[in-house]
Amino acid sequence: MSSAPTSPPAVRPTSPPAVPVDPRPRPRRPRRTPLPYVLVVPSVLALALALGYPLVRQVVLSFQDFGLAQQFGQPPEWLGLENYRTLLTDPYLWRVTLRSIAFCLVNAALTMLIGVGLALAMRHMSRSVRLLLQTGLLLAWAMPVVAALTVWQWLFDTQYGVVNYLLTQLGADYTGHSWLLRPLSFFFVATVIVVWMSVPFVAFTVYAALTQLPAELLEAAEIDGAGPVGRLRHVMLPTILPVLLVVGLLQVIWDLRVFTQIYVLQKAGGSAQDTNLLGTYIYRLGIGGGEFGMSAAVAIFMLVLTVLLTAPYVRAMLRQEG
């Protein structure tokens, strides 16, 4: 006896799992308001007027023949690139440029080394000694440039200078020695003055960065066997590297455009022809010689040179941020 074939049982369709509904309301996106941009506009306009207009005026002036006659109303003559062609073919400009770059790099390097060294030393000083050193640095930094130069001129004076007296007492023949006549000794005196006035900024800034170092990080490095040099090289300096880059960038800019120290020392007895830097060269072309168009061209050349010298620092800062 055969049985009838049975049909497979019907499969009920399964419903998709229920998605849990979040009872919390979705946060609203904050509405964009133009208030921040409105608040920034006055500052941007002030910067554009204070920095943008002089720069544009300087660029325009560098393409013109602008001298003493133009100071009394005569319209300037448009020269195009003639001022730049004259300057770039002038051997004296390149001597002044190389002299300025060498002076800038030497001063910036010495300032950074001495400033960082003082900042590291202040971490190990007692409170009273540290306060005494910081007070001296602060006074040196706050002293007006002309007042400081007056003191330094007296120290290196030919007849009554303390430096000549001390060297003579030590056995060297420095009686009546003039430090400003020869370019090498002139720039030695200028370097002493510039570094002396720049070190406090570096020392204070780097010391402030060192005080923010985590003590646990230094203790961990010491437990791992790192000595003082190893902790300095592998822990402290890499941690404060962003601060060092910013301070180094500022020092290069300031030392490249140094003017007052060189100009006052030239007036005290130095030869301007042999000791001009870009700052004093621009001044003597414009104010001294009445060639304002030519001096504007040198100023633009100096601006481009500053950008080229600071480009490695800017790239390192951007890499550090990345």
TrEMBL record:
SUPFAM superfamilies: MetI-like. Residues 1-22 have a biased composition (Pro residues). Its main location: membrane. Residues 1-29 are annotated as: Disordered. Gene3D superfamilies: MetI-like. Residues 97-313 form the ABC transmembrane type-1 domain. Keywords: Cell membrane, Membrane, Transmembrane, Transmembrane helix, Transport. It holds the Pfam family BPD_transp_1. The chain crosses the membrane at residues 34-56, 100-120, 132-155, 186-210, 235-254, 292-314. It is found in: Cell membrane. The keyword Transmembrane helix applies. Belongs to the binding-protein-dependent transport system permease family. This is Sugar ABC transporter permease. The lineage of its organism: Bacteria, Bacillati, Actinomycetota, Actinomycetes, Propionibacteriales.
